[in-house]
Amino acid sequence: MTSVDPSSFGAKTLAVDVCRRYPGSIKDRVILITGPTVTSIGYGTAEAVAQLDPKLLILAGRDMTKLEQARHKLQSKVKDAPVKLLKLCLTDSAQIKEAVEELRSWQTPIDVVINNAAVMDTPYELTPEGHELQFATNYLGPWLFTQSIIPLVLESKGKRVVMVSSVGHHNGDIRWDDPAYTKGYDRKHAYGQGKTADILYAKELAKRFRGQGLTAFSLDPGGISTPLQKHWSLEEKQEVGRKYGAFHQDGTVNHEADVWKTIDQGASTTCRAAFDPDIASESGSFLVDCQIRNDKRASYAGDDAAAERLWKWTNELMGESF
């Protein structure tokens, strides 16, 4: 098995090639991935990881039928891949805590947590707890889940947390005084604030747990045609098509456009963030196209004071004391 020099990794690198470069970070390790539906880069990540002999892959999501589909597809590609399923609804704090208790009952240290689950540009909706849906799914839920299982991560060898953010974080900073958009909703800004929070959270997590050996990274996976775009109107697709060639005028995907990555390519940056031991000294960084690119973060997403503020603010918002 020939491994690839990580300096040559880029936009078109495949996730499995990244994983093959770091077999020691995967073999006999426990990897947890949220949002691994078969059409997602979460699934692409899982399939790549499964080929490197992990001890256990934990696939976490709210829809058990979709999780079963992911497990079936995964085990059809990688025979006897060790997979367990975890019901996890990121918009329901009580259910998140149930999932955490379930995980604890397994008595298994978790080497790598990959927070991949996301929604994008959804119509305005508040969760039963009063949080805007995108912010709850993309940040608040993953925050509560991750904070709650940090002890399991610290018991492991890997000790790594990965937040899958997006170039969409450039759509907006955190609306500190009105994160639920009670004064008017902008769905693209709402997506942006959640993805900005993911970056800041990884940065602050890295700082606070550096002394305990935990590392954390955030990343932009690039443009991948998945059901995430299902809420885009024809006009929006036409506009993106004019700018980047990503869609035809009828709204169908132009798969020939260079802006798109395949799922296997889209999962590769996640895999480097999750498994490269040599980037540990740069914990808290942001990756794009498999390389550390802190210059690609919006200024507000790389701000130390904002990261510290977010930590305290989120605890208050969620009624927690992590």
From TrEMBL:
GO terms for molecular function: oxidoreductase activity. The keyword NADP applies. Pfam families: adh_short. Gene3D superfamilies: NAD(P)-binding Rossmann-like Domain. Coiled coil: none annotated. Keywords: NADP, Oxidoreductase. It comes from the Eukaryota. The keyword NADP applies. Belongs to the short-chain dehydrogenases/reductases (SDR) family. PANTHER family: RETINOL DEHYDROGENASE, RETINOL DEHYDROGENASE 11. This is Short-chain dehydrogenase. It comes from Kockovaella imperatae.
